[in-house]
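Lab notebook: predicted structure, single chain.

Context: the supervisor wants predicted structures on file for every construct in the current expression panel, including those that have not yet been purified. This is the next one on the list. No modifications to the sequence; it matches the entry in the shared construct table.
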Amino acid sequence: MDQQEKFDYWLDIAEYDLETAEAMLSSRRWLYVVFMCQQSIEKLVKGLYTLYVCDEIPRTHNISYLLHKFEDQLKEPVTNSRYDLFEKLRIYYIEGRYTDYKQKLSKSVDEQTARSLMKETGEAFKWLLSMKK
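Prediction complete. Output recorded below exactly as produced.
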C-alpha cells in the first residue's frame, strides 16, 4: 500500500465513525456521540500522519500529540481552540475494560455537550481534511 492508499483507509474509517456519531446523536446515546467524535478525529489525524510523517503511527489515542509531529508542515496553523477540542475529545476515549470510568463519563455527558462536541468535531474534521497534502 502506498501513502495515499493508507490515507484513504484511515479516511474511510474516520468518515464511518463520524457517521456513527451522528447516528448515536439521533438515538440519544450522548457518551457514544462524543466517543465516536474522538475516534473520527483520531483516525483522520492518523491518516494525515501517514502522509506527512510515515506509516509507523505511534500507538496512542492522543490527537494533539500526533498532530504536533507534523503541524509545522500544514498549510495553516492549528488554532488553540482546535487543540482545546482535541483535548476535550481525549477525555472521552473509552477503554472497554474500564466500566466504572465509562459510567462516570456517561453521567458527565448531556445532550448539550454531545451536540456541541458533534458540531465542533464536524468543523474540525472538514478543516483537517483541507490540510491533506
